[in-house]
Automatic annotation (TrEMBL):
Record protein name field: 5-formyltetrahydrofolate cyclo-ligase
Keywords: ATP-binding, Magnesium, Metal-binding, Nucleotide-binding
Superkingdom of the source species: Bacteria
Pfam families linked to this entry: 5-FTHF_cyc-lig
Family the UniProt entry places it in: Belongs to the 5-formyltetrahydrofolate cyclo-ligase family.
Enzyme nomenclature, EC number: 6.3.3.2
Source taxonomy: Bacteria, Bacillati, Bacillota, Clostridia, Lachnospirales
Organism: Enterocloster alcoholdehydrogenati
Cofactor(s) needed by this chain: Mg(2+)
Catalytic activity reported: (6S)-5-formyl-5,6,7,8-tetrahydrofolate + ATP = (6R)-5,10-methenyltetrahydrofolate + ADP + phosphate
DNA-binding recorded as keyword: no
């Protein structure tokens, strides 16, 4: 398939890189690390002498891949991912859904958020509040979103805070992920910290062309309960079952 350069979101990525450089002094306590890792035992992991450096190298490579993705592929993959989620039983049964708002280079989740709102679900959207820390706020419509930290659309300050303990299903972004539930984000640690307090299902969304066989890991990395891409949903709570998979 011919690939064309996608428009770069340079400002956003520059801000993320600046944040990652500045965050070296952030002290984070993972009070529920054992619970968050959950399936750590028995899950294959790419062990590196320097996992932080391995992650940085992988982030650089995946960003290059993203910049070369065919826009038509992205649109089709995003649509299929949303269709998978909307028909997924875990989504249908969830009362409160936590969902990110995709940036230009991420999966476009606004149609998914609107679908959840139309179904009467409570929707919690992340909002950055300080270095490495975010909270979720409930929105009642897409009009409750406005550009916030790093140019990412966030809930307005008037939206009420949604406790992480009330989240039934968390839909999480990534740069890349593996089929065993490991994800690689931008390196800020926002989601790993937040997810420690989320009792519901944690699902990572990724376009299939960006998925990796192995992801370098560290002890604080939070494993996902499900992996969702355009070809299906791999529910890792039931390792042999893939919902809606073609073939």
């Amino acid at each position: 398939m011919g690939q064309h350069k996608a428009e770069k979101a340079g400002g956003y990525e520059a801000d993320i890189e600046k944040y990652i450089t500045e965050k070296q002094g952030v002290d984070v306590k993972h009070s529920k690390a054992d619970d968050c890792r959950g399936r750590q035992e028995g899950v294959s992991c790419y062990i590196s002498d320097d996992p932080a450096a391995a992650k940085k190298s992988l982030r650089r490579r995946i960003r290059d891949q993203i910049s070369c993705l065919d826009p038509s592929y992205c649109r089709q993959a995003d649509q299929r991912i949303i269709e998978r989620i909307v028909s997924w039983e875990c989504f249908r049964q969830a009362d409160t859904v936590f969902c990110f708002v995709g940036t230009d280079r991420e999966i476009h989740t606004k149609p998914l958020i609107q679908a959840a709102l139309d179904l009467g679900k409570k929707i919690a959207v992340p909002k950055c509040v300080s270095k490495g820390i975010m909270e979720a706020r409930q929105i009642s419509s897409l009009n409750d979103l406005a550009p916030g930290s790093y140019g990412i659309e966030e809930p307005l300050d008037t939206c009420r805070i949604m406790p992480p303990g009330s989240v039934s299903l968390a839909l999480i972004p990534c740069l890349t992920c593996s089929r065993d539930g490991r994800r690689l984000g931008y390196g800020g640690g926002f989601y790993d910290r937040y997810l420690e307090s989320v009792p519901g299902i944690r699902a990572v969304l990724c376009r299939g062309s960006l998925m990796e066989e192995q992801i370098p890991c560290e002890s604080h990395d939070c494993l996902m309960d499900a992996v969702i891409w355009e070809e299906g949903i791999l529910d890792l709570r039931f390792p042999r079952y893939t919902a809606g998979s073609d073939g």
